[in-house]
Amino acid sequence: MALATRARRAASLVGRVRCAFQNHGGTGSGFGWLERMEEKSTTMRGEGKDWNRTTRGFSASAQDAASEEQKKSKEEKEKASEESEGGEEGPENSEEIAPDVNELQEQLEKQKVEVDDLRAKAKESDTRLLRVLADMENLRERTARQAENATKFGIQGFAKGIVGVIDTFERAVESVPTELMEEVESGTEEEKRLRQVLRSFHEGIKMTEKQLLQVLKENGVEQYDPTGEPFDPNLHQAMFELDDPNKEAGTVAMVTKKGYLLHERVMRPADVGVVKAKSE
């Protein structure tokens, strides 16, 4: 009775192994060993041998066969997948990649051209900027010089007017005879009084002239008298020539109008008479 029960269990196990084998992709040719195992189990039930040992052997063989079949099926699927990727997708991917590479190269060339253009424009902009900065620096220096000159030489027109007044005072002083400036004991009281008035007037003109020269000097204007100096066309204006055996030719022998400098720049040249060259 126990032997029959075990035989039925073995048959049931063979059936489950058959189903599992079919579910894992086993082919019909792989069922031969199951059929042999079924025949062996039937024979052993009839002969009455040890069923426990046979069952254990049968289970191990079934498991090894199923594992080997699964491994073989997995390898076939992987091989088929590799062939499919290498035989179909490979060329397609190559054909797709080639246009992409060409397109990228064209874009790269265009970008290189754009970069070169931008560099050229940047260089041109730098040149213009440097030129503008140089112009601005020149303008700043020129403006500074003009402002300085306006401060230093702004009084030139006014100073020339004052110089003309000083010339008039000088001529007035020189026009008074020297003998009228001397005190005399003879003469009437009226003559003495007139001489005194004339001297006072003369001294007043000289003092006024001196004060004007002082004011001009405080503002950068200086008077110069080139008598006896070599003639310099930058400082002197020759009005005439004269003979003077006691002086060298080209020397300033007479000054008819004194010169003036404004901050060491000629504001008015001196009018002079120059010694004539000696004739041989």
UniProtKB/TrEMBL annotation:
Keyword Chaperone: yes
A GO cellular-component term linked to this record: PAM complex, Tim23 associated import motor
Chain segments carrying region Disordered: 25-97
Composition bias type Acidic residues, residue spans: 83-97
CDD domains in UniProt: GrpE
Record field: compositional bias (Basic and acidic residues): 35-53, 68-82
Record keywords, A-Z: Chaperone
InterPro entries membership: GrpE, GrpE_CC, GrpE_head
Record protein name field: GrpE protein homolog
